[in-house]
Write a structure and sequence with these properties.
The structure is a single chain. The protein has 9 helices and 17 strands. By secondary structure, it is α/β, with parallel strands linked by helices. The chain has 2 domains: about 140 residues, 3-Layer(aba) Sandwich (Rossmann fold), CATH 3.40.50.720; about 200 residues, Dihydrodipicolinate Reductase, domain 2 (2-Layer Sandwich), CATH 3.30.360. Strands 16-15-14-13-7-12-11-8-17 form a 9-stranded mixed beta sheet. The two termini are about 40 Å apart.
Length: about 375
């Protein structure tokens, strides 16, 4: 098969404009030929900023563009299923933002359609490509931990603690009350961050077999900037759950985005032969430490050069996203499977659904 440039259309211009467009443009094998936003002026501004030839405010019209190979969907979760289905029906490969869908049924439909069409379906769990994550995965696969005993994953931050300001990662002019505050639109920290963490747990330790957990919205109202009024929050800002892994071992995950002076993000994994601890786990400058059987203390582990990024970027999300794009390109060109795939996204969705069921029932729930 000859080498060809892969033409991309980016839909949604929040994360899409901040990370995805620069990421695709940093890859010599891809070219962004179109952007789409529900606001025409926003699409045209992004097209001008990044010198992209086509700007759309109608998604279906963009799908008719000649030469379009891949659609990168970075819209809120409630739009993922209809947009993915339309792209696949139009014969386009898809890179979809996480969480994959609103529920397991939607995600399963998207998986089946991609398989039926013979098209690549990938989920943007880009943190798998962080140097510390990739090296930790290799060490676990090589037996560093031995038999898994327990996992402790915590994420405590004030990123969404002020009801009068947007989340810390958002644009400054974004309204504090938006789709992230609305459960029916796929909002909440379980989807926004928990989907990444669950994907990481699967990748490191294997399938999650059952869960028992609770979701909370401690801040019950947030400001809607256009009107100035406070509106009710229906989506979680904190969650916690216990988990059992199919291969053995258990874990506890505790997350809150509304705590002051939070201790950040940390993953600890304990096994029969060793311990691994990953601090600042969503950042390229994260620190991986380990201890083997008989050691009395952790020592920092040096991540080999082969796992490091070729270049440093102002936006810390760009490095792992570029690696993900390279994997996507290989999958399209060779027909080989990609990861994280739609099937991986479906696995995450099943755990999220089970957690919501557990929150409602107060019981342990088997992951379907």
């Amino acid at each position: 098969m000859g080498i060809f440039t892969i033409n991309v259309g980016v839909v949604g211009l929040g994360f899409g404009a901040q990370v995805c467009i620069p990421g695709f443009q940093a890859c010599p094998d891809t070219e962004v030929i179109a952007v789409c936003s529900h606001t025409r002026a926003k699409a045209e501004a992004a097209a001008a900023q990044y010198q992209i030839p086509n700007a759309f405010d109608d998604y279906d019209t963009m799908l008719e563009l000649d030469g379009l190979d891949v659609v990168n969907i970075t819209t809120p979760p409630y739009l993922h299923r209809p947009m993915v289905v339309a792209a696949l029906q139009a014969g386009k490969h898809v890179l979809c933002e996480k969480p994959m869908a609103l529920n397991m049924a939607e995600a399963a439909e998207m998986c089946k359609l991609a398989q039926h069409k013979g098209l690549v379906g990938m989920i943007d769990h880009e943190y798998r490509f962080l140097p510390t994550w990739a090296y930790m995965k290799e060490m676990i696969s090589g037996g560093y931990l031995g038999e898994l005993y327990t996992v402790d994953l915590t994420a405590y931050t004030s990123a969404w603690a002020n009801p009068n300001r947007p989340p810390a990662w958002a644009n400054p002019d974004q309204s504090p009350w938006n789709w992230l505050a609305q459960e029916e639109k796929g909002g909440g920290i379980l989807g926004a961050l928990g989907s990444h963490l669950i994907d990481g747990l699967h990748w490191f330790f294997g399938d999650i077999e059952s869960v028992s957990g609770e979701l909370d919205a401690f801040i019950t109202e947030r400001k809607h900037l256009p009107s100035g009024e406070m509106r009710a929050v229906t989506a979680d800002d904190s969650f916690a759950f216990l988990t059992r892994f199919a291969k053995g071992g258990h874990g506890v995950v505790r997350v809150s985005f509304v705590v002051w002076g939070g201790s950040g993000l940390q993953l600890k994994a304990y096994g029969s032969e060793g311990t691994l601890v990953l601090d600042n786990l969503l950042h390229p400058s994260g620190v991986l430490s380990g201890a083997r059987r008989g050691d009395n203390q952790l020592v920092e582990l040096s991540v080999p050069e082969e796992f490091q990024f070729d270049a440093q970027h102002d936006d810390r999300r760009l490095g792992p996203f570029i690696r993900l794009v390279e994997t996507l390109v290989t999958g399209i060109r060779t027909g080989a499977g990609v990861a994280p795939s739609f099937a991986d996204g479906l696995k995450v969705q099943k755990v999220m659904d089970a957690l919501r069921h557990s929150d409602e029932s107060g019981e342990w729930v088997e992951v379907d």
